[in-house]
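Researcher: Here's a chain I'd like modeled. Treat it as a single chain, no partners, no ligands.
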Amino acid sequence: MQAPSNTTMMLFLLTVLIESMLSNRYSLVTVGDDFWCDYQPAEINQVIAEHHSIALSSSLIWPPLLITDSVNISGGHNNCLSADLGLKANNQSRISGFGLQPAIIIKTTTDNMAKINFKNLTIESGYADVGGGIMADGYFSLVLNQVLVTNNQAIESGGGMHISGRDNRVQLRNSWFTNNQAQHGGAMSIVGSGHFISLDHSSVYGNGAGISGGGIACEGVNLIKTVDSLVADNLAEWGHDWSIDLACEIQTGNVSTPITTKY
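Model: Modeled as a single isolated chain. Structure tokens:
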């Protein structure tokens, strides 16, 4: 019996190594248009409905996303193999509404709080009555980490994001809302009660509203907390940066200079 060649043995060991790494990826699935991807881009919303940890390549512009339950979506990967191997993502994956609909719709339907996490995404070119970039309703915890929300428009409120429902938690970490437009809450509008919104090392700047709250508009018994973040240089007829009713509370920590995005 002939012993395997060194090349054959090396290929075998490399295959075993890759399979071992892939088996320990905590059910991560990849979506993109390269050879290593588990799913193709056209299947993205089916994947979101069936899986809880999803990595996106950065090689194309993604269509609008529909989210109804807990999910982690990370973007910016050069290709699906780099995501599988756990390599650091250096880019952004672009989610677009193509000027026709919200870029992301979050509509949870269960009594349990849905846990939703976005990382390394650009959410752009959304259009809707409310929530041009992100329209979020239901009962959820939403974390935006290294997310840019830009060039979205709402006819009424929440150009970048509209939050409704009850007792929701929204965290912005190292994220940016800029160049979004609406009549109320150019960057963000918050309605309902019991919401906790936190901005951590994030910026809301350069947004606009035709009437009120060029930056953030808030109605109801809700709490907004900022830490090392900036809400500034927004424009509106009334309340350039903030439009807050008496029930909505703001707690402001350190105010930083504009936190610019590299994307």
